[in-house]
Specification:
There is one protein chain. By secondary structure, the protein is an alpha+beta fold. It is 29% helix and 31% strand. It contains five helices and eight strands; from the N terminus they run ββααβββαβαββα. Strands 1-2-3-4-5-6-8-7 form an eight-stranded mixed sheet, with helices on both faces. β3 and β4 form a beta hairpin. α1 crosses α2.
């Protein structure tokens, strides 16, 4: 599976990407509160994370690679939402863009490919947590049909400051999306229960 533009290819992540993906993530660990990790990782420490995202199934890792340089411009994942069995049809999604790649549509391209890949999986809901404030991420998720479900106030402390995390959800299975669209149009319908 790949989604292409003339200058960017989206493809599944692979072992050879580990160092670049670790460097990209470490930027956010060092420089931002977007992730609540506080210590940078060595590539070997991130290997279990990479291996937990196979090329198929509900837990994916997709990378955006610049053509022809092969530079990694960003990545998106769908991961287990919670470890208990009843949560298996829910995923947590996230997208990270490399420094300097923001504003090029990389996040959009990655999410388009990710949600397309998940469309045939047994996944009912996607959830995203966004450290506030982050208007760009909130706008990206809104474009993809995510709606706010709540905010954890001062849930994490990084750089000596407490941060709020807003949570958003989106239906992923076709039946749930169709019910939401019908309900949003004002016709008979509403949310499905799971």
């Amino acid at each position: 599976m790949s989604a292409d533009r003339t200058d960017v290819q989206v493809r599944p992540g692979r072992e050879a990407d580990l160092e670049a993906l670790t460097d990209l993530y470490n930027h956010y660990v060092r420089e931002t509160a977007i992730t609540f990790d506080t210590n940078v990782f060595a590539p070997d420490e991130r290997r279990p994370w990479l291996l937990s995202h196979p090329e198929d199934g509900p837990h994916r890792l997709l990378v955006a690679q610049e053509i022809p340089s092969a530079r990694i411009l960003g990545y998106a994942t769908s991961s287990a939402f919670r470890p208990k069995a009843a949560y298996a049809t829910s995923v947590e999604v996230t997208v990270y863009c490399a420094p300097g790649a923001a504003g090029r549509g990389i996040g959009t391209l990655l999410y388009e490919a990710l949600f397309d890949a998940l469309s045939d999986e047994d996944v009912h809901r996607a959830y995203a947590g966004i450290t506030l404030p982050n208007d760009a991420s909130a706008a990206l998720h809104a474009r993809f049909g995510f709606t706010p479900v709540g905010t954890y106030r001062e849930v994490g402390r990084k750089f000596g400051v407490y941060h709020d995390v807003a949570w958003f959800e989106r239906p992923l299975d076709r039946r749930a999306r169709a019910a939401g669209a019908v309900g949003a149009a004002g016709a008979v319908g509403g949310p499905t229960t799971g």
